[in-house]
Specification:
By secondary structure, this protein is mainly α. 46% of the residues lie in helices and 0% in strands. The chain has one domain (7-48): RNA polymerase subunit, RPB6/omega (Eukaryotic RPB6 RNA polymerase subunit), CATH 3.90.940. The protein is built from two helices and no strands.
Length: 59
């Protein structure tokens, strides 16, 4: 995460990524076999800063 996201932006990013994962997108990080929940994988990806989703704020 290169910039600070609000809690709403964080929730939207994790939600969008977990939907992608549940529809068959490959994970962007190495995960152990016991973690199957797409939300958990998306949270780990967010924490590592590897999710390719950017936030554009309007002034």
């Amino acid at each position: 995460m290169t910039e600070e996201h609000t809690r709403f932006e964080k929730a939207r990013i994790i939600g969008a990524r977990s939907l992608q994962l549940s529809m068959g997108a490959p994970p962007l990080i190495e995960m152990s076999e016991d973690i199957l929940d797409p939300v958990d994988v998306a949270i780990k990806e967010y924490e590592k800063g590897v999710i390719p989703i950017s936030v554009i704020r309007e002034n």
